Amino acid sequence: MAAKSKLTPASLAELGPAKLAELIVEEAQANPAFRKRVTAALAGAQGPEAVAKLVERRLAALEKARSFIDWPKIKEFEKDLAATLANIIGEIGPGSAPLAVDLLLRFIATAADVFARALSSNRLEDLYNEAVSALGPLATRLEPADLAGLPDRVMALTDRAGDIAPALIASLLEQASAADLDRWDRLLADKVATLQSAYRAGPYRELRQAIAVRRDDLDAWIALENEKPRESRDGLAVAEKLLAAGRAEEALSWLDIEEPSRLAYADALDLADGVVRRDFRLPARSGLKARILEVLGRRQEAQELRWATFEATLDPGILRAYLARLDDFAEFEVLDRAFAHALTAKTRYRALHFLTEWPRLDHAARLVLDFGLVWDGSHYQVLQWVADRLQEEQPLAASLLYRALVEDILMKGKSAAYGHGAAYLARLDDLATRLDPAALSKLGRLSHADWRAYLRQQHGRKASFWAAVAR
Predict the structure, then answer these.
(1) What is the pTM of this model?
(2) How far apart are CA 455 and CA 465, in angstroms?
(3) With 0-12 CB in 10 A as exposed, 13-18 as middle and 19+ as buried, what is 221?
(4) For the purposes of burial, counting CB atoms within 10 Å of the CB of 262, is it exposed (0-12), middle (13-18) or buried (19 or more)?
(5) Distance CA 355, CA 386 (A)
(6) Is 96 left (phi over 0), alpha (psi -120 to 50) or beta?
(7) pLDDT in tens, 152-185
(8) Cα separation of 188 and 204, whole Å?
(9) Residue 461 half-sphere exposure, CB side, CA atoms within 13 Å?
(10) At what angle do helices 316-324 and 282-295 cross, to 10 degrees?
(11) In this structure, what DSSP letter does residue 230 have?
(12) How far apart, in whole angstroms, are the C-alpha atoms of residue 394 and residue 401?
């Protein structure tokens, strides 16, 4: 069998100009986007101005278009936009940065209209992000006079650029001179003043904060943070920056006025424990406050805060920070106290996760066995993660959790999860070979064989499940 030929510039060159021209013409006739690339390449032989005329015609049509781009047309539209962008960056950019920047700004200014006309498309987002990324390198090749006028030109098109405008500005701020930063800051301040919506003003205010960081002006950064609506202020970020600047007292005052988020938050562990609202930033806030207290010489307060936060959250990070400040050998007594607290915590799923993650698998297994009938297989994100880590060292506890997972799938007829259920059952078959037969009996549980027979009796008609088991 002949080896497959690889498509490389060298291998294609061996075909010769005539054959390549024939293939290009053939593909150009069938592929409109490719035809535009070829036409632009031919025009490029006459200089970037010739290509620019082609691109300008396409951009003019794009700016005037108002019709909706439905699903059957979106792919061709994406290819057309990609060809236009490639012509700007690849054909015009190398020969004339000013011309490429002009056209790229026009291209970016079509974003809001295009996204309003088209179905949601990751490819469209990628294309406009690519245009934003290309502008910065091109801008570095502009003459000083052209570069000085760029902030005003960009700010004039922010409404038409839509949601990508802040990213566009951010890319230009990275390489802006001190004088340019001054101009950007004034223009951004004017923009924020014109926006009545705090949501819309937010990204532009954060750009001003980025400028303050570039200037190493912490007070200006904090002043901008104070301009945000109260619920949007990030007291932790302010306190972190103040602490790094050696201003610990001010940092502490910011944390003291920091309020827990009003947003309800619950992760998989919260849902399993029935906790529907909690201060999810408490470990981070307490950890930072403890560090500030230490800088202020209030070490005992810092440790008391860490321990209280651990008791409330069972967060392993805050416990490690507490242990790191203890004298030699004192940590063993504290760890015993921490594990004892976890074993009696009301939030049993979080306690189980903590003990498994630490890891103290013996304590995690004890928690599983103490509350054997409590574990709900519907919380599979938690129970599978724990069972997978217990199965080698604690097969009995792992078996109880895998059983809970299988029983939940079958009792609720979760056909989409039958494959997972079959996998859990296979693990139970393996674990059964390593279990003391009396261990399950002591817990008032059926032996593995009897439990399997029970499943057959209760769920024998679930043919799809048993077919998955047989595979």
Answers:
(1) 0.80
(2) 11
(3) buried
(4) exposed
(5) 9
(6) beta
(7) 999 999 999 999 999 999 999 988 999 999 999 9
(8) 6
(9) 3
(10) 20
(11) G
(12) 11
